[in-house]
Design a protein that fits this description.
five-stranded mixed sheet, Four Helix Bundle (Hemerythrin (Met), subunit A), alpha+beta, 7 helices, 2 domains, Nonspecific Lipid-transfer Protein, Chain A
Length: 248
């Protein structure tokens, strides 16, 4: 997916999140974010949209805290969510995806933010579905892109997700393979950290199944034991990855 496709998909996800929020119980707990209610989740996402919009609009050369931006904070409702989402989309669409700027991930360009905000919104829309005890949904191609974006950027997330720094080893290989789309990844644990590839060859452990189910497990929205995934080989290696790879 390219920048324009990410923006188009983000527009859909913003609307889906806002629509789901309109009918959700505000005080309901969010299983994927155990300390949050539905309102907390919506406040987080609406703030992140505004933060990203501000960064992209200024082509920020370095990190700027949301607290230093004077962002609109609410009231947290459907119009507030849609307004922040629309502002973000306008800024992303008029921006040059190749323009350099600060990003917390590996791709230090505007295009990082269209992809990141799409999958931030997608995963939190799934959180709303789970909070409402509904089965989550996502197209296979979108779920595959979300997994790829997560894996590509995870090592760079160590600054705010310190457990990522614990992911190292002595050459062990974890293979992740989707069974409903042509997508697979390999994670090799080396002494200095982990290395992500896209070959999906045989390894010490295999995690395989539908790409949506993989997304739910990798983002810790569904325990492996409650999923339909196939786990072969070293289960401790998979548990080690899941325990330390969460974005915080």
């Amino acid at each position: 997916m390219n920048h324009e496709q990410h923006c188009d998909a983000l527009e859909v996800e913003i609307d889906r999140f806002a629509s789901a929020f309109d009918t959700a119980a505000p005080d309901a707990g969010v299983p994927g974010c155990p300390d949050w209610t539905v309102v907390d989740l919506a406040s987080h996402l609406g703030t992140i949209h505004r933060w990203a919009q501000n960064l992209v609009s200024t082509l920020a050369p370095r990190y700027v805290s949301p607290d230093d931006m004077g962002l609109e904070t609410g009231p947290v409702d459907g119009p507030w969510l849609r307004r922040g989402g629309a502002q973000l989309l306008r800024t992303l669409r008029v921006g040059d995806p190749d323009s350099p700027m600060w990003a917390w991930g590996v791709d230090q360009h505007v295009r990082f933010w269209s992809r990141r905000q799409l999958h931030e919104t997608l995963v939190h829309r799934i959180d709303l579905q789970l909070a409402g005890r509904r089965e989550p949904s996502a197209s296979p191609d979108l779920a595959a892109d979300a997994i790829d974006e997560f894996l590509v950027n995870l090592r760079a997330a160590q600054a705010f997700s310190p457990n990522v720094g614990e992911l190292h080893g002595h050459g062990q290989l974890l293979t992740i393979r989707a069974t409903d789309v042509s997508a697979s990844w390999s994670i090799r644990f080396e002494p200095e950290g982990f290395i992500v590839g896209r070959d999906g060859g045989p390894g010490d452990a295999l995690l395989a199944g539908s790409v949506l189910e993989l997304l739910l497990v990798l983002y810790r929205r569904r325990p492996i034991e409650a999923s339909s995934l196939l786990l072969e080989g070293d289960g401790d290696l998979v548990d080690y990855w899941i325990a330390n790879s969460a974005l915080q």
